[in-house]
Amino acid sequence: MSYVDVIDLAYTYPDGTQALHGVTLSIESGEMLSLIGQNGSGKTTLSKCLNGLLLPTSGNVVVDGHDSKSSSISDMVRRVGYVFQNPDHQLFNPTCRDEIAYGPRNIGIREPEVTERVEEAATVVGLGSEHLTEHPFFLTKGLRQRVAIAAILALRPRVIIVDEPTTGQDARQAREIMGFLTTLNREHGHTIIIITHDMDIVAAYTERILAMAKGTLIADNSAREIFSNPAIMERASLAPPQITRLAQALGDMGIHPGVLSLDEMIAAFEGS
Amino acid sequence: MNKTLLGYVPDASFIYLVHPTIKVLFLLVVSLFPMFISAVEWNVGLMVGLMALTVASRVNMRTLKIYIPVAVSMGMIILLSYTVLGGRHPDYQVITRIFGFPLYWERIRDALVVYFRILPMILTMVFFLSTTREREIIAALRAVRTPFVVTYVLAMSMRAAGMVMEDFRIVRQAEQARGFDSKNKPLPYKIRKYVMYMVPLFALSLRRSEEFTNALVARGYSFRSKVKRPDYILSRYRFAWWDGALGVVIAALFALLLVARYRFGRFTVEDSVLLRYLHTILIPGGGA
Amino acid sequence: MSSPAIQVTDYSWKYLHSTTRAIKNIELIVQPGECLGLIGSNGSGKTTLCNSIDGLIPGQYHGIKEGRVEVFGTEVEEYRRGELQRTVGLVFSDPEAQFTAMTVEDELVFGMENLGLSISEINRRLEWVCDLADLSPLLDKPPYEISGGQKQRVALAAMLAMQPRVLILDEPTAMLDPVSRERVFAVLARLRKEREITMILIEHSLEHIIPLADRMVLLSNGRKLHEAPTRTFFSDLSLLRQEGIHLPGAVGFSGYLRESGATTDEPAISVEEAAQQARNLRGAAKGELS
Fold this sequence. Notes:
The complex is a heterotrimer. Chain A is an alpha/beta fold. Chain A is built from twelve helices and ten strands. Chain A has helices at 43-50, 73-77, 96-106, 111-125, 129-132, 141-153, 171-188, 199-205, 223-227, 230-235, 242-249, 262-270; strands spanning 4-12, 18-27, 32-36, 58-63, 66-67, 80-83, 159-163, 191-195, 208-213, 216-222. In chain A, helix 3 runs parallel beside helix 6. Chain B is mainly alpha-helical. Chain B has two domains: 14-132 and 240-282, no CATH class; 148-235, no CATH class. In chain B, 62% of the residues lie in helices and 3% in strands. Chain B contains ten helices and two strands, in the order αααββααααααα. Chain B has a two-stranded antiparallel ribbon with strand order 1-2. The relative contact order of chain B is 0.15. Chain C is an alpha/beta fold. Chain C is built from twelve helices and ten strands. A six-stranded mixed β-sheet of chain C has the order 6-7-8-3-9-10, with helices on both faces. A four-stranded antiparallel β-sheet of chain C has the order 2-1-4-5, with helices on one face. The N and C termini of chain C lie far apart (57 Å). The mean pLDDT of chain C is 88. Chains in contact: A-B, A-C, B-C.
């Protein structure tokens, strides 16, 4: 049994829209994954099912032995954290310190430990003590996003889902955020699931891709395998990164269609 | 298929041929009818008429079912407040006594009259909301020469309401994702937590307002603009002869009602065949 | 000779509560019908520059302006109220915040009403933008019920309906998924083919800016760091790398070939060109061997 097991999951919204059907997957502790697909393919619904915000219409989500249907929301969120796309939707407290402490207090952590968790989470995301006393509203967007992540970290979930962390960021900021998420994964052992439309990010940072289309999982494999499979990319209405497309255009020169970076491309070209 | 204010979707329907102004006139005038009708059977008749219109407009009747429990419980509340909580009136006619409390005919009669006045009013509103879109309200207001700024602010607030509701939903989920669980918590706790939602909602609207003002300026809009606006929306709704006819019919019906009521004393409690019949059943031999 | 569409002369801008200038001594000329790609990291002054051309700066913001910003030969501050907005259209990255109406149709019409166009003219333009941006099936829908990509196409079409001579797009696809993004750029490409329109496009994704832009400008810290016709712009990649700009794979690869001395060709800026460069080299290598 894996840390997260999703078994034949289906979810239908109250208005009758079927957002998910027949999703089965397992996630081990310590993985770094990306969840890709068009808007409306079911990525967000799946994520919300993983942390118990939505309960399956049929099928099961089992995290660390807890079935979401029979567990309380606070049981689920201390295992799977979900960072919403817009930090402004999730910052409600007068100071960053209260903001980060909010989650642990909700799940009944005692005060000395709350303080300890706040300090730890703030350090991990690189928030200085001068920021902790500030009102989140007045921070820059990048910092607000960090506060939002720290607020989830303080719940110490093993799995963290981050919804489009690089949207609206420039290349440097995107690298910074992804670098930070990679550190959480490698050094702190968190399982990280990134929801993104940016295939360059997918190629550069994640080992495993879950590709979704029309409410179901259409592929669960490495970036290399998925990007070099045109049928899957087409079904997901996605195009691989430009460097991969270049490699594919040069397939007849013996270059592997699953090239993921410029360095790989150069090596492949020099070896051709 | 069009989404209306109540979210119901009438299919292709004659109702789309009616000018929004006439719809609003219908709402305003017809919902007044019950105020002048005390005779229960006439109000029931009005309800049947409204139901017939709703069906004819092809509003999905299944979705209206949710109003049945509301209507029933409202009836119970009215009945209780008129009988049990109605107080003692020595001059009223007693039907029977329950545990010594008198049950008066007049109170039951009044409860019926009130209840059957409210139902057609609600039905008029439901009919209107199920067949009218937000944009039609704006069109109706413009048609009667409401200043643009007024209709514009109204439209904006309707739109903002939609946006805030969407934000509210996400904020609530974001709170749950942080382990907030309102199950089995006392009410003051819940209220306090609800107040917290205001913070992000406020922050979001502040951040948006700047972009929004910019967008308005970029679209050439200014509250002090001297440009004569062509009012495109009205060009989509033209008055047809039947709109005039409908307007006349609605006004004539109302005038007739008023004349019948105040000139000839019709539609009153005394005029109600149904109430008279009920009276003879409940109080056999008792004179009116 | 007629005046350029946009002429920015020694222009600086400082926001009132800021200690440094957001724009520093910028010189820029955009000719009518030209498409200029504007890139740079967040906070480099791209949006401030665009808002200055549309008159939002100094109209909606307080600050200190130096130098001149001219649109078709007239300083933006000298335009009569509302007149500049007829000439310059602005599309933002968040379509949500731009909507003011209850249906897509009213949304498209709002700007035209503000211009005081006749109903028949409105109908004619409405038909044109609906066809251009493929919006006919959406006309009756409320703007908050359609998808993000559709919203942005509506916002773009609403702006185009006003037929501005200059169109400024500030990261128009930042919030969109890949398919929606392609569709927005397809609309822009078609627009450029069908009409003479001057365009300034801000976008992080170089891959999408390259096929549209005639010329590119790199801003950093409020200064213009680099400006060249699109292909020449990528002759020297060191500056772009130093600025942390993410280079598309084809550009990066062609840059490697040129920097390693393998080729002296011009920079490749599309997958097809880069592939051709690679083929030519291998073909040449084989030719030498045989």
